[in-house]
# Entry
Amino acid sequence: MLEKTLVAVLPFIVVLTIGAVFVGRYLARVFQGQHTFLTPIVGGVERGLLRIFGVRQDEEQTWKQYAVSLLLFNALGLCFLFILQLLQQWLPGNPQHLGAVRLDTAFNAAVSFMTNTNWQSYSGETTMSYLTQMLGMTVQNFLSAATGISVAIALVRGFVRRSTNSIGCFWVDLTRALVYVLLPMALVLSLVLVSQGTVQTLRPTVALTTLEGQAQRIAVGPAASQVAIKHVGTNGGGFFNANAAHPFESPNPFTDLLLVFSLLLIPAALPFTFGEMLGDRKQGTALFLAMLIMFSIGLGISLHYELAGNPALAQAGVAGGVNMEGKEQRFGPIMSTLFAQSTTVTSTGAVDSMHDSFTPIPGLIMVFNMTVGEVIFGGVGVGLVGMLLYVVLTLFIVGLMIGRTPEYLGKKLEPREMLMAVVGLLGPPIAMLLMAGLAFSIPSAVASAANTGSHGMTEIIYACASAAGNNGSAFAGLNANTPFYNVGLALLMLVGRFATILPGLAIAGSVAAKKRVQSGVTFSTTSTLFVFMLIFVVTIVGGLTYFSPLVLGPLLEFLKLR
Amino acid sequence: MKELKRALIVFGILVVITGIIYPLTVTGIAQLTMSHRANGSLVTVNGHVVGSELIGQQWTSPKYFHGRPSANNYDASSSGGSNLGPSSADLEKSVAERIAKVRSENGLAADATVPADLVTASASGLDPDISPESALLQVQRVAAARGLVPSAVENLVTVNTRKPFLGIWGQSRVNVLELNIALDKLSETP
# Structure
């Protein structure tokens, strides 16, 4: 079994690393306005769009202007998606004649897709019309991902530039992220998916009679175009309720592998983009390695415990106690665990198996991945931003140890940067713990959990961690389609998203204004020691903040099951 | 105010590109070049659509191979799993009942272990596949119900087994609908 696992996982990691290096360099060229292999095809589209938008290619904004543009743009997206769901019954593209979405559900879904979370308290095929899925969900999948990439690029620019108050232009970054990166990747991926069996049609549900004479109704729809971008953009919201476990989203192991790869690709590439734009590749490699090491350790632990199976099932007479509950036969435990690890570290939230039915320790690792703030690769863009906030914190701690003002990439890190990093790193956990505490104190909110005892507790913790980390996956036994969870989790998603983005932009603005200093005595941020220091800080902050719920939830269940 | 106007223009145009042009382009290309796949890989027998190659169905007759348990009774208009946790008493109870049923239907010993996929609910509730072990375990029953030689039915299972991708990723599996259609054909040929 160990051999089989290594044969499946190691080549995947190698290919991912190679892909990330190349895509990382490509992204650097795109956002520095250099020529790429796609420029002859889409360069004209970029120029045309910017002209219509009334934006010059060399336009610059301060961090505050950048933030205002971003917030206005995101607020529009939120309102548009909210209203679209309420009006869908009167609009075309609704062959199932679905009614208006409930108010609290619609608010939750609008926030969820705007913040790149894609938490879904609704079931796709029975709630959202084809038009809502395309014009609402698919649009926000693109725009929230492009927003995330833009923020990351702006922050990188802040470190690259010196003595300036500008960090680039949001509209230019947004346009480039869409035209050069997200649209081409999603287009290719969606067509490959269709060739394997992912549906892409505007026809209504298929009604048929089976060989045994039973009636069956099969939901179809324009799924492939949405599935592709929900992975490339680490969004994760499924077209169908079962997400990528649905055979019409991921029909075979090849598509499954492709979907895992595509959700990791951009987040894994961005550290390399960072190094490339700095002109110091080692800096990017160090961040990538810290992410990869944490990813691999978590994956290893999860695989070890998931493949050991469920003792309760073994006792009942299941061969080997293999935990196939909530898993698809074509994927099996190894691929399902790889998918679960990848989707929770990257804040994607797509699933190819039901996380609620995993054994306790993998469940614990999934919650951990989300509670460290989605920085192990993380969501497109915001993952790198979150990791850089951790870098600031790490260097501050190191600075205390050696008694010097910390520096990163020749920029002095002063109280202002430190304050912003702490807001970004502690804002979401505090909000998350408050929300979880509130849920536990309201009987009806506790009753929403389908499972009882420690596992029921994990369901609620998971939901709050998923919302605050902008992940969107769920221990789906929790019925979160109640006004309390819809509104509470929506607010949590807003905190999780903007408590990362705004401090990130603020730091970008303040470091861009600084001179580059060469003090000579600095702590190397490309050394092995730094990589492990960073991992240590991430683990301590993520681990200790949530220590007690993790013990009472998954760990206790693990001990009881043995 | 100027910035809000600009945000409105950008948003409006990007909605058209990503929400209309993009999905309709994919739909157009998919329908023109691979409409069978794009429309749900539907399977036809004697001119009637009897299912989708990718979507599992409920099978109850002893003369057909049975698929995996489904948390939504194979309702393909509403997918999903059981979401029961590993320590759930409900899970333990349903699995024990399914194991007893599999043993009695297929004439297995009272202490015979059963492949996991045949007694646990899938993630989608629509899993079209079972493991080759789960299929082989049903060969005797199916052959007896149809008056066929077991080796012929077993051969059918082997022929219909799909391997993991490149032999590495995913699991070996048998598509239940395809297997049952092949089985009907085998019974028809004298």
Notes: Residues 130-160 of chain A form the longest helix (31 residues). Chain A touches chain B through 120 residues (CB under 8 Å). Chain A is about 65% helix and 0% strand. The first strand of chain A starts at residue 206 and ends at 209.
